[in-house]
Write a structure and sequence with these properties.
- This protein has about 375 residues and is α/β, with parallel strands linked by helices.
- It has eleven helices and twelve strands.
- The strands form three sheets. Strands 1-7-6-5-4-2-3 form a seven-stranded mixed β-sheet, sandwiched between helices. Strands 10-12-11 form a three-stranded antiparallel β-sheet. The chain has a two-stranded parallel ribbon with strand order 8-9.
- The radius of gyration is 20 Å and the shape is globular.
- The two termini are about 25 Å apart.
């Protein structure tokens, strides 16, 4: 047996980009919100930041980013237009309010601040909302690891970024949800680009291999990059979402609540088993929300064994993965101990909608077996 990393259903691909009109309804959360399409969340963040800077009649603005943040998501913002400052997070993954005060005391409040709901778990935004109102800071909600708005995500009246392409295994497709009356001035972003050259053939091959239960992991070299291996720079592509991807999102809009429930159930099934095993101490999230639509299931394995366990899992067909590379300002810096520990100690497991409960249970047993040994 092996576990596919992403959903692989070929029926999700429309034969034509025509006839499927994307409305964005599942993400609006309120009727007075509008949804803007982008290729990736990094472009949604960049264009939103530029709009906020323009609305303040500035040519350059400062943005506060949590220390535990993927460097790839900041690629388009590495320009003179943005002054990027990193703030610390607590062991509970929430902003360190004392550190926010410290940084703002040095350089003044930023123009905008990003708040992340890590692993799709709704985190408490109350203190941050109050701090942003007090200091005139535009708050941005990063829900890249949540498929849909759920209680605690998308209901704070600020711009929210979602990345459904990750959940649906699409070439691209990210969403910026903004209140209708906000000062954000950004147009819908689409383009007519074809699928990436290898995207469709790889998807077809993976779907066939999965359907035939072929152990593809045995025919390729498995290498999980260590936390000291930097990820190569990537081309962020174009801001616009492919119309083909928009058509795929439109085709699945009505099915998204069901997909969210499946992911929720898979996460809880893994968590229940781990909570009742010797691996219970490695759970990152101890109290689950009433409902959510998570991207992955995380575990935190302290010490130097996390990479060994991920490597062992990949060799038996379970695509355990590390958190993405940190930004150079944060990586290996003594000023950001929490994110550097997390980078070394976190692995994530798939919970996508095309997995069966049999696969989820088998994967969980293997994880518990390996984690408990260490």
């Amino acid at each position: 047996m092996f576990i596919p990393l992403n959903p692989l259903r070929l029926s999700d691909i429309p034969l034509s980009k025509k006839g499927h009109i994307f409305s964005g309804t599942p993400w609006k959360a309120r009727e007075n919100n509008r949804v803007i399409l982008f290729s990736r969340g990094q472009w949604a963040l960049k264009e939103l930041g530029s709009s906020i800077i323009r609305s303040r009649n500035k040519s350059k603005g400062t943005i506060f980013i949590p220390e535990y943040f993927c460097e790839i998501s900041l690629t388009p913002m590495r320009t003179p237009e943005f002054g990027i400052r990193f703030y610390r997070i607590t062991p509970g993954l929430e902003p360190d309010m004392a550190d926010l005060e410290r940084i703002a005391g040095q350089d003044g409040p930023p123009d905008m601040m990003v708040f992340v709901h890590y692993f799709g778990i709704p985190l408490n935004m109350g203190d941050v909302e109050a701090w942003c109102r007090k200091n005139g800071v535009a708050l941005i909600e990063d829900a890249a690891h949540s498929l849909l708005p759920v209680p605690g995500i998308g209901d704070h009246g600020c711009p929210v970024i979602y990345t459904p392409w990750k959940f649906m295994n699409l070439p691209d497709g990210a969403l910026l949800v903004v209140p209708e009356k906000s000062a954000v001035s950004i147009k819908m972003n689409e383009n007519d680009a074809p699928y990436p050259p290898l995207w469709l053939p790889k998807r077809v091959a993976s779907a066939i291999a999965t359907g035939l239960h072929l152990p593809v992991h045995k025919f390729r070299e498995v290498h999980v990059k260590t936390c000291n291996e930097s990820e190569p720079p990537t081309n962020p592509g174009k801001p616009g979402c492919r119309r083909r991807s928009a058509a795929m999102l439109a085709k699945k809009e009505k099915d998204l609540p069901r997909i969210g429930r499946i992911r929720d159930n898979h996460y809880r099934r893994i968590d229940d088993a781990i909570a009742n095993s010797d691996a219970r101490t490695h759970r990152i999230v101890r109290h689950l929300p009433s409902c959510f639509a998570p991207y992955v299931y995380p575990l935190r394995i302290a010490g130097d064994t996390c990479w060994e366990i991920m490597d062992a899992l990949n060799k038996i067909g379970i695509p355990a993965q590390p958190w993405s590379d940190l930004s150079p300002e944060v990586k290996n810096s003594a000023a950001y101990p929490e994110s550097n520990s997390l980078r070394k100690e976190v692995m994530v497991l798939p919970v996508h909608q095309d997995l069966t409960t049999f696969q989820i249970d088998w994967m969980t047993r293997q994880v518990i077996r390996l984690v408990s040994k260490n």
